[in-house]
Amino acid sequence: MLYIFSIFTVFATWLLLLIGGIVNPMGASLACPDWYFIPTCNGELLPDMVGGVLYEHGHRLWASGVGVLTLIQCVWIFAKGEKTRQLRVPAFLSVLLVAIQGTLGGVTVLLGLNAALSTLHLLTAMVFLCLLISISFRLEQPILKTGAKSSDSLATVAFMLILVQILIGGVVRHLGAGLACGDDWLTCGPQMWPSWHLGQIHMIHRLFGFFVAAVVVVSNFRSATWAGPFAYLPTGLLVVQIALGLLTVATVRSVPIVVAHTALGALVLASQFLIVLRASHRQNRLAVR
Asked: What are phi and psi of 12, to 5 degrees?
């Protein structure tokens, strides 16, 4: 039951990322300019859920729900005693991280959507998702030997590169560089490398994305020798993700496309992280043998 609950918490967290991805494209980030460590909007816990309030306050309420789920999971893990002793630190860290995440979101609003904090808010969300996935994975696949590391270093590198790409994507969004190259999805205006600052940031995200894709594909093909067809999942998701990124530009930041691009990016990261976890578990089993 704890494992099923952990899966539910992971799914709720991914939905939170999807909901959060709607707020910025809808221009609703400042629909609730107040923040008092509790999910209020304009001084009300349950204001009229219309316009931007629906997206911004809906995001806050769902985030509070994820926080409660994370706390319940932590208490449950501690209550299981020795059976889940190795998960106590990750469980506590998950509660700490979700609190930090909520605080970052609130401070970001109070500071008028500071780009650096907004990007950090996105990055923390992705790290939090991976931490929950790790807890869920270890509930199903307990550690057999302490200290064994991943046997697939390229998979780990690919995972880190995806995280960096998401970070750069956050910079592009929060600096308003998403359309710095207009609706041209091949080049940036008449040239491949623009002379203006925001155009350069946009092209870094675009070109680095293709580099990350190449590393992920090579990594997945290598991992397939021991992980089977599951190893190709990040590659498949990444193909769709690149298409969504190009469509974001071609459709002049269509809201459904932008939201899907953010949500799928989290799935690409999560699927690659699962390969890293499975590689580590495989190494544990080999070490025991």
From this structure: -65, -35
Check if the beta carbon of residue 246 is closer than 8 Å to that of residue 116.
no
Decide if 282 contacts 226 (C-beta within 8 A). yes
Residues in contact with 48: Cβ distance below 8 Å, sequence separation at least 6, in sequence order:
none
Assigned token pair, 152: 């697939």
Alpha-carbon distance 195 to 65, whole Å?
45
| CA 230/CA 113 separation, integer angstroms | 39
Whether 180 and 196 have beta carbons less than 8 Å apart is answered as: yes
At 204-221, the pLDDT tens digits run 999 999 999 999 999 999
Which residues lie closer than 8 Å to 246 by C-beta, 6 or more apart?
185
pTM: 0.92
H helices present in 51-114, as ranges: 51-79, 88-110
